[in-house]
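Our collaborator T.R. sent over the components below with a one-line note: 'Predict the complex.' Nothing else. No constraints on interfaces, no templates requested, no preferences about which chain binds where. So this is a plain run: every listed entity goes in together, and whatever single assembly comes back becomes the starting point for the next discussion.
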Amino acid sequence: MRELFSFLSEERVLVDKEDLLLYSYDATPSRRYPIAVVRPVSTEEVVEIVKVASRKRIPLVARGAGTSLSGAPLPCEGCIVVDFSLMDEIIEVDEVNAFVAVQPGVVYEALNRELAKHGLFFPPDPGSGSVCTIAGMVAMNSSGIRAVKYGTTRDYVASLEVVLGTGRVVKLGGRYKKSSSGYDLKSLFVGSEGTLGLFTEIGLRVIPRPNHHAAMIAHFDDFTEAGKAITQAMAKRLDVAVLEVMDSLVVEAVESFSGINLGSAEALVLAEVEGFDANVKEEIRRIAQVFTRRGAKVELAFDEAEIARLWRARKAALPALARLASTLLLEDITVPVSALPEMMRRIRGIGQRHNIRIATFGHAGDGNLHPTFLVENEEEMRRVSAAIEELFRECLSLGGTLSGEHGIGTEKRRYFELEHGYATQVMREIKRALDPKNILNPGKIFYGRQAYFKLR
Amino acid sequence: MRELFSFLSEERVLVDKEDLLLYSYDATPSRRYPIAVVRPVSTEEVVEIVKVASRKRIPLVARGAGTSLSGAPLPCEGCIVVDFSLMDEIIEVDEVNAFVAVQPGVVYEALNRELAKHGLFFPPDPGSGSVCTIAGMVAMNSSGIRAVKYGTTRDYVASLEVVLGTGRVVKLGGRYKKSSSGYDLKSLFVGSEGTLGLFTEIGLRVIPRPNHHAAMIAHFDDFTEAGKAITQAMAKRLDVAVLEVMDSLVVEAVESFSGINLGSAEALVLAEVEGFDANVKEEIRRIAQVFTRRGAKVELAFDEAEIARLWRARKAALPALARLASTLLLEDITVPVSALPEMMRRIRGIGQRHNIRIATFGHAGDGNLHPTFLVENEEEMRRVSAAIEELFRECLSLGGTLSGEHGIGTEKRRYFELEHGYATQVMREIKRALDPKNILNPGKIFYGRQAYFKLR
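Returned assembly:
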């Protein structure tokens, strides 16, 4: 292995089992060892790595921080992991064009710390933001609690330097604000989960950092009722930056885990408004009114400490739930906002029918829910598998999508064609055109290393 | 011809020369007759048309209103034009999800008239908005004077039904707010200029229609100085909805054509702010301050009639210029906002060096300029051709793009690889994968009907 990568210094080619362990997992329950890990520091090295892999037909799996909840960075059989963590330089902050150029391994929070010095920020806000990398976010089209106002990573990618599966480098986009020049390859690579190319430089549009905030917490006696209020608030087009829901199981878990008193309720809704002046207070009151009218008990929060307390509670949801069961399966469905109450009702029904515990929280303002399945044993896992399939079918029947922000990876391949139909073939054909030897993250999004299809 | 399309009623298959004349042009100077025109009224008919064309290897050119400034809907040799103007139904306005579903031939202004009844609008605002179709806008990723605030058509396309060159139908996207499920095929089709598929249904995200407006006109003694002020205003991230520039040649033409007195100047800048409350007045004053400080004479406009007068002047630019020369060549470059003053200086230099008249106006706030070449005769046309090549090279050297909103069509094919390098091959390969017989608008964006390349 080392001789294949003699252009890399020795300590940047890992082959020992104890080193490979660190690259054998992501945030899903699966594990697999790669045959090696390479740690490039430049575009040129990435090109050479791809050329070796192409010649030897060795699969390459790109890896940032490995925080994926879908299996996208999981090593596949006989693969080499390309670890981008050494390429972590913020190349340039261009204030005039509100643009920043970064290497792939820059960490989300580190970028926003740097941007804060310029009064700017990159809004998509994944739960793993303290460790996840920008290239990982681009690969998965990540977002988070602020997507309801600011959209997803795709909306901010201005340019990409990409090494294709052939070893050729393409440069896409630029720091201009718009273009009608040719196909939008840039958006095609965003969300491609490492299957179409490896990112070696990323340019992001960034925006002014808001400095006024106001928040609200609303307690409901009924989960579906909370959904109806959220749909109503969104239909009024109130300018909400965050609009989260948590069911009673999540609330209890958070209270017991973090010691934060949330006041027990069948459902909690958290909202935040942000902007550049005191209007945020008026807007949060308008939002609160919608919730009060639908029977919620509402508290407002205007000072920083109080708002921070609410977000600590929200961020504690996943670790708190992790203590309730030996395995968590965190799903990531998104439905049209109009279908939110019905989806919430159906999640309840699925839990009851299959006699399993489902804790649901999520970015309800954009229809993105994380029904989280708590699993203790093999027998329960079988029931959960059936329940998850039902969940996806219900979500799709309501006009939804399999993933709002976590991607398909290995976890949702089997349902992919249910959502996309013949478009699945079109995507596979594009994969074939760009990566003819199928060496880039094979078996992710689509199944296996089987022969490509031709469009008929 | 009629027997090939016997599934269409007779009056929807045009073959007579006088009928074909209406389909032989767009807004560029070129002309070519198709061999026939078909006018489908349903997705099923479009599928049948594509199947016939595929079997007979007859090229198909999709057409909306034919207002393109790049040649995209121009008939190619031996082609059939697919006229979508009979598919002009607004299928559904979904207020809760802020979504509208339309057939491809719906006219931009007609859609916004309907949306206004619901307090909504679709912001991209092309100069041809009174006649252009939504599918044409999607095909070209059109925008206009409001792109500086609202972005381009791509930012609003939520879903597409597309008939591929094989006759297969794919449905992409939905009315959910975000997705990380597979490749972003939707964005790939937006801006594909009819070369990848034919749109049979389009879903758009729409937004609340602002009801407060304020405007400003600034007079400068120097064209480049106006550019510097615009860059400065944009760097301050003031919330401008429109930020237009016109040089003295455009100002004179508009004054003489429309009778509107603009007060002669070396450069005029028009700005508009829009929103939902009286803050628009404060914001336009902040913008005005930037321009005053850079030596401009500034007037503000707060009432509707006065604002309308300004926009009448701006909209008159193109027809006014058309009276100054027998042929206009309207270019559409976009540079990073930081490079705007330098680009404006270089446009002046190109005009002087080649001894030609260039009238420049455009959406300067997003770096999009329309240098318009006034041409009287063959000899001048030769000099203009050299000047246009220089213009594109200068634009690209400043980090710009060949087209901000008009597309590549036939007019900029020859410069395309200069901008995109190897990515051109990747785009061609995608075209080959999706349209293996190259029957969809061949020769647009890329050259000719020559064999496809394989990625090496």
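Summary for T.R.: Chain B has three domains: 2-83, 90-208, 212-397.
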